[in-house]
Specification:
With 205 residues, the protein is an all-alpha fold. 84% of the residues lie in helices and 0% in strands.
């Protein structure tokens, strides 16, 4: 049963990560611009945040989740502004060769920004709570170890998608000219900016 919960968590995590959103666009843009390491770090930051929200839902930390949901407007505003900043930054980025040290440093930054950006969507915890409740994960009869295994499954499933996306994108990286990379940056920046404006509108409407 416990391994069955891990598999369910894996499927949930993969399904949450797979739809192309602002993090997916960032992952693709950063992979094309700076390589697989930075793109993967972007995805793993989001996977960590998803796992954290899954942890809150699985272990019934309602006092935290209720606070996050109550403040969701502010989170959307912060997330929207952050997306606008990232969109403008991506739009103005120019393809450049990076040293290994610089690549490692930007990978840490990529991880941190996507982690914080994903956290600005606290409604995710309600999504997890609904699924886990439907599967009986939050019932008292479920052992903490089983719930924890499912959370690990969520992270693993999400991480698997980001491994696939960044790896597949990296295959085409060296086949794209510098001029086309610059165009990718501009298109990605515009799309991310649109996501940011949409988040800001949803927060005030």
């Amino acid at each position: 049963m416990e391994w069955g919960l891990f598999i369910k968590g894996f499927i949930i995590g993969f399904s949450i990560a797979a739809p192309v959103g602002p993090i997916g666009i960032l992952c693709i843009q950063r992979t094309l611009l700076s390589g697989n390491l930075q793109g993967l770090a972007t995805g793993l930051g989001a996977a960590t945040a998803d796992a954290l929200y899954g942890f809150m839902a699985a272990f019934g930390l309602t006092f935290i989740s209720d606070f996050l949901v109550d403040q969701s407007i502010w989170f959307r505003l912060i997330g929207g502004l952050f997306l606008c900043y990232l969109g403008i930054k991506a739009f103005s980025s120019k393809p450049q060769v990076q040293s290994v040290a610089m690549a490692n440093d930007t990978a840490l930054s990529a991880y941190g920004t996507s982690f914080l950006l994903t956290l600005t969507n606290p409604m995710t915890v309600l999504f997890f709570a609904g699924i886990f409740a439907g599967l009986g994960i939050v019932s008292e009869s479920i052992h903490y170890a089983a719930a924890g295994l499912m959370v690990i499954g969520v992270f693993s499933g999400s991480a698997a998608w980001w491994f696939f996306l960044s790896g597949a994108t990296d295959i085409f990286r060296h086949k794209i000219s510098e001029g086309k990379l610059a165009l990718v940056n501009k298109i990605s920046g515009i799309v991310i900016l649109v996501f940011g404006i949409g988040a800001l509108i949803s927060a005030v409407v």
